[in-house]
Design goal:
By secondary structure, the protein is α/β, with parallel strands linked by helices. It is about 40% helix and about 15% strand. β5, α9 and β6 form a beta-alpha-beta unit. The longest helix is centred in the first third of the chain and has 23 residues. The model has no long low-confidence stretch (mean pLDDT about 85). Bound molecules: zinc ion (2 copies).
Length: about 240
């Protein structure tokens, strides 16, 4: 064996050892916990978080497959204050359990998983990110705001500023999920206050769960009232 071929053999051995170590150090898929490498493996993405399923471009409500429409009837009849919504999937297993594990179980590692996946689905430029704030009482009880945890990772990953300091939740009623649809809009009316302006900005609002969309609608309305020109919702799970 020549010196050159011995060196080549050694280099090959070192490269494959590094690859094996990297694979061992990579996290398991957050859904199946079998595959390593990506936050969620290809199989689980295809089975549970299919980005190609038909959704309304504005509010991300499910649309019947095969229909040549981009918006749901509700958004056509009365366009909401936000312009577009990206969701990872439906609020159903396994996503509902993962959201609860983040919120109630303090699994902050899942915020990174959600942030990575949402960042991958973003196709339009944004100028800043804004997490839907929790009320002071709820934030104190939980110790963190799950939407802010997701937005913080996204801001780092996308290299866009976080505008969290601009918005405060001045009123916090009962959780939206506990109310009938017609009461949700009134429950969040006047809930947010902005202490600054966003002239000409394209703002992305980050939330963990979107139910009727009333909370995001109210925040989008406030954000646009201080100059934002485009509001995109980045949401983990959609319930309706
Ligand atoms: Zn998996
Ligand atoms: Zn819609």
């Amino acid at each position: 064996m020549t010196v050159l071929s011995a060196w080549l053999l050694l280099a090959k051995f070192i490269t494959s050892s590094i690859a094996s170590l990297r694979r061992l150090a990579a996290p398991y898929c957050a859904v199946c916990a079998v595959d390593r490498g990506d936050p969620i493996c290809t199989g689980c993405l295809r089975d549970f978080l299919d980005p190609s399923c038909a959704r309304c471009a504005v509010c991300a409500a499910r649309l019947p497959a095969g229909l040549p429409v981009a918006r749901c009837g509700r958004c056509v009849t009365a366009a909401p204050a936000f312009d577009a919504t990206i969701v990872l999937g439906d609020y159903a297993p396994p996503l509902d359990g993962m959201v609860m594990a983040l919120k109630a179980g303090g699994r902050l590692d899942l915020a990174r998983v959600f942030a990575e996946l949402l960042a991958c689905r973003l196709r339009t430029p944004i100028d800043c990110l804004l997490a839907v704030p929790l009320g002071r009482r709820r934030q104190r009880a939980r110790g963190f705001n799950q939407s802010l945890e997701i937005a913080t990772v996204m801001a780092r990953r996308l290299r866009v500023p976080l505008a969290g300091h601009l918005v405060v939740r001045t009123h916090c009623g009962p959780p939206q999920q506990s109310l009938p649809l017609h009461e949700r809009r009134a429950n969040v009316r006047g809930a947010f206050e902005l202490c600054g302006s966003l002239p000409g900005r394209r703002v992305a609002l980050v939330d963990d769960v979107m139910t009727s969309g009333a909370t995001l609608e109210e925040l989008a309305r406030v954000v646009k009232s201080v100059g934002a020109v485009h509001v995109l919702n980045l949401v983990v799970a959609r319930t309706e």
